[in-house]
Every structure is written in structure tokens, then in C-alpha cells.
Amino acid sequence: MIVIEDKKDCCGCWACANACPKQCITMVEDNEGFRYPQVDASLCIGCGVCDKVCPLKKPVVDNEVPLTYVVQNKDRDVRRHSTSGGFYSAISDYVISRGGVVFGAAFEADHVVRHSYAETKAGCVKFQVSKYVQSLIGDTYAQAKRFLEAGRMVVFSGTPCQIAGLYGFLRNKKYEKLITVDLVCRGTPSPLLLNRYLCHQEAVHGSKVIDWKSRDKFYGYDYSTTNIEFEDKNISYHKGSEADILFRLYFKNICSRPSCYQCHFRTLHRMSDFTIFDCWDAPSVNRKFDDSGATNVFVHTPNGQAIFEQLKMYFIWSESNLNDVVRRDGIMIKHNVPENPRRAEFFKDLETLSLDVVEKKYLNCSIFKRVIAKSKPFLYHIKVFKLYMFVKNKLMYYKSLRVEP
User: In this structure, are residues 275 and 267 in contact, taking their beta carbons and an 8 Å threshold?
Assistant: First the structure.
């Protein structure tokens, strides 16, 4: 019977809940908004399956050095509605065109991000763009297995721990028609914080939130923003990372799941077929790229390489240098962020204080910061922001050359 004695030992992947033959495990939300397995001892038969499928019990990684590419979807409209270069849209189209099924994370009206599946291209649109919160997996591992056993192609995307959870649930059985895609993440913020944040926005703006995107290209790729859509279409919310409360708390390393600060899966070598993350300066890799968004793609498996060869027709693409990619865009591939020493205090305050008070207590709300936040859209429109980002990225890259990856 699975027992969580230290919350850092559970990544919330749901593998145990999906695998339990008696369905006696439920994922219960704690006071921080994260979910952990709870076993109904009266139904448990002591089979030990839950421990066997847990990816943190026996972490497995691929020891092969990945092949590395930069890609841009040829369809500019797809890039516009994607977080970066539209890789996942291409692989979704590929799978759907072959009668397959696409699994991904989607924001729903109750302020929750859940995993679900789609069987049409239109249905896959909900999986586009980033959601900076860990989705609720539910029974999607079991659903994916049923589709695979029926002979259908399946692509499953998620955080590295979720993909590890899927393989744990499948007992590491290799399905020829399974394609897995993980992403490089900094950590998974609290779903409770997300709900408090969106309720706060509804109260401030007097309208119900119907959609939320962590990063959107409203101002273009150089200045991605948090985008909130309200029932009242006259309300517009587009704020950069320096102005949005949720984003700022996230980068304070104060609101992620406990396991994220010592993530077992933050490594160059992944179990998945593909790892994807932003390529911030694609034109420096190859001049055939423009600056409308591009994706770094690591290919870890022979299956992934075979699929990538078939996907090339969707992309402008180029091989890239592994060390350069890690230095420039991939610091979070290999390194954990430190836990903010005020994290416990923050979650206690989140239970009782308004979000306005939390913001003032934990974030720097100086006049200078507010001026910078308000000036960036203007700088973007007069093209100065693009130059600023170019210089900033170059300085960060040259600085990284002095650090061994």
C-alpha cells in the first residue's frame, strides 16, 4: 500500500490511482492545492501494484545523448496560436490524420487544468499554449492504454513526471504506436493559487473567466503575456511576467509542488520520445528562421527519430548544437531551482489573506517596477523592446559560456 510520508516523495502523477486493481486510491487535495494518493484500507488487497508503478520508487532515464533540432511550423497562423514554434500542433495533426488520439492538458471553466483527449484537429486546439500549472491526469493513462490495445496511435504530452507516470502505469511496456512528449519546466505551481488568482481577477473585473493562457503572443513572441478572456468581451487582460501576480510568484520559487525542488526527472536524458522547450533566438541558429517563435526539440528514442523524419514536412528545421542549446535556452533541463525559504509562510497566508495583501507582502511592488511593467507594451510597439530582448539574450548567452553546463 502506497504511503506518502514526505510530500517531496510524490510528484502527483496519478500512476498509482490509475493502476490500482481495486480502484481504492483517490487523489486528495491538500491545504496547498496539490493532490496526493489516499488509500481506502478497507478495499486494499495489499497487491503492491501502486508501489510498483510509482516513478519515484525506481526512476528510469535513457542514457543516450539526444539528437537536437530547432523547428518552426511552416504555418504562421499555427505559430501565432502556439507558445513557441508549433511542434505539438504538427505532431497532433500527424497522429489525427492516421486515425489516432491526442492527449494533452486543457483549461476548463471551473478554473482547473485537466488532461483529456481529442480525436479531431479542431479538438486539439485546446491543448495549444502553455498552462503553468500541473494538470489533473484523472484516468487518462488507462484511457491511453485502451486506445493503444485497440491498435490506435496515441500521442501523450505532459510534464516529465507525468510521462514517467504513464510509463510506470504501462509497466514500461513499449507500444509501437505510442508517442510521448515531455517539456522542460521550472516547477508546477499550486492549483489552489491558480483558483485564487482567477477568482481575484473575476472580482476585480466583474466578469467570469472563460479562458486563461500562461503565455500568449498578443504582443508577439518577444513579449509573451498572460492572457485572460472574460465573458465580457470588452475586458482585455494581457500582462507580461513582470506585472502578472501569478507569474511573479512562480518565479519567486515560492508556490511549486514540494517534489519540484528536487525533481528526479530534470535531466538531459528523458524517457519520452521528445522533449520540447522554447528556442528564444532561432535566427542565431540558422538565418532561415524568423523571430515569430521556434521550438527546441530533443529526440531521445529511435521511435522519436522515425516520427521526426516524417514530421519534417511540417517544419522549417535545423540541427542544433546540444551544448549551445543547454547554455542558451535549457538551464532548467538539468538544474533544480532552490525552494524559497518563505514558502511555508506563503501558503499559510494564502489560506487567510486576500491576494492583494499576499502580493504586497511577497512581491516587490515598487513604483519603478510598475513603470517598467506599463512601459513594455509601448516599447514593443515602437520596436525598442525587440532590440532590448536581442541585447539581453546575447548577454545572457555570452555569460553562460563561462559556466559549464
Answer: no
